[in-house]
Design goal:
Elements (H helix, E strand, L loop, with lengths): L1 H28 L4 H22 L5 H31 L14 H15 L6 H12 L4 H8 L3 H18 L8 H23 L10 H16 L6 H14 L2 H4 L19 H14 L7 H13 L6 H15 L3 H15 L1 H9 L7 H11 L4 H14 L3 H14 L4
Length: about 425
């Protein structure tokens, strides 16, 4: 029984605490010793798995882990100092000094993680590498889990991470005392990485899951860290967090009991998380300070209107916001979403014409939308587009949804 309990608890604690330990150690050692920091954290959990299996789970599991991690870090520093003293003596240089004791207070952990976010989101690395590094270093994901998130081979992810880590070490970003200048220079990259991380989960490309909740949860946690620090508690950060709260509020309604996708119009609104909607409203109000209007502000407002029930002019508001968003940050996904809102305002017939002007014939979402718009008046064309979408998507959940929509139309082969 004890073994079963600790086998259940340790993976949960690993996900929660590994990245925190690594961040604190890196703040202490510097990014040049990133691997050493991760090794100490890994050894801590290895010792826990061995010790708890025999002696049982301690009364304060987190406290036990941090105490062991501290001792292992001190041993590492002692070995490094002995080696440095020896080298310094032979070279006639001054040896390094023993560093202060470690502190795993909530402030120390929060400050360390925040600094790590800004280190990982280096403009030197492309967005894909930033997300992969964030998942591994900030969220404790394995190479296999990251590969699943990207629908990529593990070897490809390994190479991406190796290149990204090399740039981190070479840059050796200072992890103590973030300055306003450093925040200004990297804030855009940080927000984009968290945004893309959430999207990897919310619009999952996994073959088996419509939503990767663990990715969304980690993005929410990182966005919350930004709003909790005076240096990074800025309108855009609040707007991003508002957006993530609104989107997350519909988790339970977006999938059915079997994990399949449920279209927005068919979602049970009673399943929407009212507390997350309330939090989204709070952060959206905080975001509306000054005159700044970013893509995150506009997307948060669009997500807000999606949570509003029974308003006659709801889709007019959403369409107007999408018109602004495309001017600020055009993307094919936003263009398709705008067309859906356009069809809700001006009718499906005009929506079809507006969609076809986009010429996104290699997109499953494009054909899926046309299938939906044609389904009212031309079932045969709707089925043709749904089948085109089926051939273009790799998502099992999306395939099942498309098959269900085709089945509803009852068109004979």
């Amino acid at each position: 029984m004890t073994t079963a309990k600790h086998n259940q608890l340790l993976p949960h604690l690993f996900r929660q605490e590994f990245a925190k330990m690594t961040a604190v150690f890196c703040r202490h050692f510097g990014l040049l010793h990133l691997e050493a920091a991760e090794d100490i954290a890994s050894d801590t959990f290895l010792k826990a798995s061995e010790y708890w299996a025999v002696h049982g789970i301690p009364d304060n599991p987190q406290g036990w882990l941090y105490a062991v991690a501290k001792n292992k870090a001190k041993d590492y520093l002692k070995r490094r100092k002995n080696y440095s003293d020896k080298i310094s003596k032979e070279a006639g240089r001054e040896s390094i000094q023993q560093e202060d004791a470690f502190e795993f207070s909530s402030k120390s952990i929060s400050d360390s993680q925040l600094a790590m976010i800004f280190a990982v989101c280096s403009p030197e690395n492309p967005p894909g590498s930033q997300i992969a590094l964030a998942l591994q270093i900030l969220c404790g994901f394995s190479v296999g889990e990251i590969a699943d998130a990207f629908l990529a081979k593990a070897e490809t992810i390994k190479k991406r991470l190796l290149r990204g880590r090399e740039k981190l070490r070479n840059e050796n970003f200072r992890l103590t005392g973030l300055s306003p200048e450093e925040v200004d220079s990297r804030m855009e990259s940080v927000l984009k990485t968290i945004y893309l991380l959430f999207n990897e989960g919310y619009f999952s490309r996994s073959n088996d899951q419509a939503i990767r909740k663990e990715l969304c949860t980690e993005a929410l946690r990182l966005a919350l860290l930004l709003t909790e620090n005076p240096l990074t508690n800025r309108p855009q950060a609040n707007a991003l967090l508002a957006l993530l709260c609104f989107q997350s509020s519909r988790f339970e309604a977006r999938t059915d009991g079997k994990g399949g996708m449920v279209l927005f119009e068919e979602q049970d609104m009673e399943l929407w998380n009212k507390e997350l909607i309330k939090q989204g409203n709070y952060y959206l109000v905080n975001a509306c300070v000054g005159n700044e209007v970013s893509k995150y502000h506009l997307e948060a407002c669009i997500a807000y209107w999606h949570t509003v029930k029974g308003t006659t002019n709801k889709w007019e508001h959403i369409l107007g916001l999408y018109d602004q968003l495309l001017l600020v940050d055009y993307s094919p996904v936003a263009a398709l979403n705008r067309v859906f809102a356009y069809a809700k305002v001006h009718g499906y017939h005009k929506g079809i014409h507006e969609t076809e002007k986009l010429h996104l014939k290699d997109s499953s979402s494009y054909h899926s939308l046309l299938g939906h718009l044609y389904s009212e008046n031309d079932a045969a064309k709707a089925v043709w587009h749904y089948k085109a979408a089926l051939n273009l998507t790799r998502s099992k959940a999306e395939k099942e949804t498309l098959q269900k929509e085709i089945g509803k139309l009852g068109v004979q082969e």
